[in-house]
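Ligand-bound model needed. manganese (II) ion.
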Amino acid sequence: MIFEVKALPYAKDALAPVMSKDTLEFHYEKHHKGYMTNLKGLLEGKPEASKSLEEIIRTGSGGVFNNAAQVWNHTFFWDGLRPGGGGAPPAGSLADLVQRDFGGWEELRTELINAGKTRFGSGWAWLVLDDGKAKVISTPNAETPLASTEIPLLTVDVWEHAYYLDHRNRRDTFLEVFCDKLINWDFVAQNLAAAR
Ligand code: MN
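Prediction:
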């Protein structure tokens, strides 16, 4: 694998004031890159070091799995954000899917917020495609649908480090802001098209 975290798809101040430059700075530089540093240390001199990140996640366990999955989850999270994003998905096959499987954007929004809010401790809320049907799930710690048969379309990080600088303890406010101002629907639509 390549032992580098992918560059952020926007400048660190591009999501401000919705997500502050400080949050991006710490979350990306310290947390995301920190998982990669840990992973590099764990795999040094091991045959797994030549595998892809996805392969390492699907076959790894313990610290190797945790750090590899966190590297992948964070890249997927960053790609799902954009300045001026969020709100209802634009008309098209994605909006049709949301209508068919949730009844509309308001319903999906409520499910996403609820999944993130009720994830006890640290983890992730996801929009996934499960056998062709869209659904919302949440996973604890580093767990990722990539290691299952579900296909991830979008995720939101609900570890405290994702929102504490901007929102303190208000995880629900962070989730509302994510839904209303940050989601990169183009990224979700690309994942949907690739999955079909
Ligand atoms: Mn994080």
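The mean pLDDT is 97.
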